[in-house]
Design a protein that fits this description.
It is built from seven helices and 13 strands.
Length: 349
């Protein structure tokens, strides 16, 4: 009886162990299923968390009326006036900064077709660039300072029309003078942030000054009418090849390579004020005359007006060491041309 009871106890214990083992099995199966589900959601569902959200009703978007004033594409439409002004300041500042460093890339600032650009209309990028550089050829050493406080703007539909004043000055090779003025410019900017119109609308405080005396001074000569010019015989035509012309006798006047600005730079960078002249307070202009040959070299260099103290010799040295110039041109051929250059010696004030 005792043995039978002992056997029964062993069977109960064995069944208990089997039940414990099955619990672990169930737990392993459940964990496996969870891992499979998570893997499926991870690899095959883009946004799995949406499966646990309630279904939203579709939002119906009605089309705008054809004549509606609203513009969903115009970003400035939702901007405050202060935000628009801040954006315009940055935009115009960037435009003038790029212009100052000689960078002009129309696609960066202008629309595909520019309606107005300095009174030229409906321009492509290529034509826009051509007109820009054509205009700049007569605006050497351009300096522009735009007055931020003068900025004004108004919204016109999906466009912004803005005006501002600019102080500008430059040298005009065509008239050989220095020009300065205050100019009011108008920019019209479309919804894409591109300029569709740029023009000057007002000018004030204009000032035109002839070249400073220190610039190249070509020797003057009385004008001769075509009727007064002597008839050249064929046998003396060869002598004209060596003739020296004055500035107003040629079609294209000679000039320093790079123009007036480079000439001033060359003189100011290379001049050496003689110590003896400085100590003796000798100041003034030394005028050096010379001939610009057909190949641009200089010859017959001499001082026509001196001040002494070693300044005359220094002026001669400057001209003798000068690089070649652009020669004068008459009837399509280069000719020898008279020229003179005043060089100023002055102590710093």
């Amino acid at each position: 009886m005792a043995r039978t009871q002992e056997k029964t106890d062993d069977q109960i214990e064995e069944q208990t162990l089997i039940q414990k083992d099955r619990s672990l099995l169930y737990m392993g199966v459940i964990l496996g299923v969870i891992i499979l589900v998570m893997g499926y959601l991870t690899f095959f569902v883009d946004e799995p968390w949406k499966l646990f959200k309630g279904k939203k009703e579709a939002v119906k978007v009605e089309a705008l009326e054809e004549n509606s004033d609203s513009s969903l594409l115009d970003e400035s439409f939702s901007m405050s006036d202060e935000e628009v002004r801040s954006s315009l300041v940055k935009f115009i500042e960037a435009y003038y900064y790029d212009e100052k460093r000689g960078y002009f890339d129309p696609p960066s600032y202008f629309a595909n077709i520019t309606e107005t650009f300095y009174n030229y209309h409906n321009l492509t990028y290529s034509r826009l660039k051509d007109l820009y550089w054509q205009r700049r050829r007569d605006m050497e050493n351009l300096k522009r300072i735009w007055i931020v406080s003068s900025l004004k703007f108004e919204r016109q539909g999906d466009r912004i029309v803005t005006t501002h004043w600019v102080k500008e000055s430059y040298f005009r090779p065509s008239t050989r003078d220095l020009y300065s003025a205050q100019v009011q410019y108008e920019f019209v900017i479309d919804a894409d942030g591109k300029i569709v119109s740029l023009r000057d609308v007002d000018v004030k405080n204009e000032e035109v000054r002839p070249l400073e005396p220190d610039s190249m001074d070509l020797a003057p000569v009385e004008a001769v009418s075509p009727q007064q010019r002597p008839i050249v015989e064929p046998q003396v035509a060869t002598n004209l090849e060596n003739k020296v012309y004055n500035a107003n006798e040629v079609d294209v006047q000679p000039e320093f390579n790079g123009g007036q600005r480079e000439l001033i730079k060359y003189v100011s960078s290379n001049i050496k004020y003689p110590a003896s002249a400085r100590q003796a307070n000798i100041q003034g202009k030394v005028v050096v005359a010379f001939i610009i040959e057909k190949d641009g070299s200089l010859s017959d260099i001499k001082v026509t007006k001196g001040i002494g103290g070693g300044c005359d010799e220094e002026a001669l040295r400057l001209v003798r060491n000068s690089p070649k110039w652009k020669p004068g041109v008459l009837k399509g051929s280069t000719v020898r041309t008279n020229a003179s250059l005043p060089i100023t010696f002055q102590t710093a004030q």
